[in-house]
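Two quick folds needed for the group meeting slides. Do the first one here.
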Amino acid sequence: MLIIGEKINSTRKSIDRAVRDKDVDFLREEVLKQVNAGAGMLDVNCGTLEAREEPDTMKWLVKTVQDIADIPLCIDSPNWEALAAGLSVHRGKAMINSISGETERFKNVLPLVKQYNASVVALCMDDRGIPANKEQSLRVGVKLVSELIEAGVPVDDIYFDPLVRSVATNPETVLETLQLMEDMASKFNGLHFVSGLSNVSFGLPERRHLNRAYVVMSMASGLDAVIVDPLDSTLMALVYATEALLNMDRFCMQYIKQYQQGKLKVL
């Protein structure tokens, strides 16, 4: 499971302040906490800045985070110019967050994916928005992934996000999302699946319980990357346990290693 740390995001007030003030010491603490907790990649987002400021700030943020930790980044912005700026200074293979079936988004982001040989989060939506049901989702997903592959993007570089909705308002959403991943996996051998956790529990109390349960259920249906807070030690322990139970961790070696490092303690 690829753990993508979510916390270097300027929608958090403390990160917004640190980015605007170029507070490297604060960012260093936030970066290292996530890496030490098990993140294999960090999502970086400075989208709260004005559009004209975001590209230069993204360039600074990417360089700063990679100077702190030698780790690949998931460069996250709806602004393709900010994506381009971050990619231009990124060391190693980056991930782009994100592309979709929306005409303008696809046209502007695809050249970046190819130019920088980047992995890419592929959102299951098009010009009509998020599909209303699993049949529409499958059509949108198949079209998007097929077009990426036809354009020369290796399937191993595509991380399909089925865009789970809130179970509070869409009771069927989780079961439909699990089926969508299984259907997409049957059509595209080697396709990856990624999810953020915030949507599934939106509007409900004690959201972390739903988020944790969703990760476990989704891993059984093919989820192999997640954008999450790696400082949630309970969630991380559940990920390691689920990998062992799904035979993704042969002889439980990773699980044992995490135990020996004291990372399976539930707070």
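Then this one, please, same format:
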Amino acid sequence: MTRIGMIVPSSNTALEPATMRLIADRPDITVHFTRIPVRAITLTAGGAAFDVETMLAAARLLADANVDCIAWNGTAGSWLGVEYDRQVCAAITQETGIAATTSTFAILQACHDFGVEALACATPYTGDVVEAISQEYAHHGLDFVGHTEWELTDNASFAAQPDSAIADLLVSAVESGSGSSAAQAVALICTNVDGTTVLNEVEDRLGIPVIDSIAATLWWALELTGTDARIPGAGLLLEQGPLRHRAKALVTELRERTGCDRTTVRIDEPTLGLRVDLCAAESRAQGVRSIQHDPSLDQRALETVRWLEEHRQTLVQPTFAEPPHPPQALRDVYGVSAQVLGPVERDGELTAWFSAHSIAERPWTDDDVAAMTHAQQAMTALLKDQ
């Protein structure tokens, strides 16, 4: 049994029922709540007690329930700054010995694992709060390419909006964007607006993930306890997030071990909505262009992928002088001059493959190939659990 403790804003009426609905079919999880005073959301913090001692007092009560993780289920760190959340979590863990996290950490982690850099932002807050959030998120590699807000300050009023208004808020945040960068996800930043009831509808309409604060906080708290965090039917984050989180760790480790410029993994997993025409995870060296959200190529039709299908072994290419040749776009658009591809099989089918890209031609060492083999084996084990 996993017990999650959550610190809740006192005027919040959305997150508790939403969280309990999400875990309704999970008898292995219980969630326990306590509250701190929060009545209004403004940059002056009037009507809210976000100080560390108030958080500690709430955490001590949750610790009495022997919870496995304590989550501050509020997004104040999004405008107060991530350093504020770090201080709160460090103080809670030092005081109670229990791992701690926050809604803001969960949102940022979800963006990291889904490879999101261009983000649309939907909130009930006022424009100055949204501007502060935008500035803070920019420090973490996230560019707001669109945003919509209700311009409200009274926290209790946030939860009074109907599902249709929440769906419209999310769609409007994406459609408000301008310029060359399309939103790769939309974040609903507030735990007193329940986006969990419209996640599937909005994601089907927009074709991108909705990172709902309530769902994200539950997901990340479960991940921190080592509990299966997948909840089918509750949006892309709770559906794909557990696998993407582990895939991100694998491509990051592969790039670090090989010293290459970019690593990716593509996965065909229909039950999760994953297809190989988009990367499930990517890791890049600084200044290297992302390929993760480019769906322009039919991956199964590529000469290199057909080679993997036929041979089912690691393809090592120090140069591209000999066949099988990669697509011209990989060379011309993304500047790749050498690569290693590692196939992953399940039930006799080529269901995934890793790519390690180098901008310069290079010899791939036995250690590089061993790192690729490790990644392939780890992904094989992960996919067996799906």
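Slide caption for protein two: The chain has 14 helices and 13 strands.
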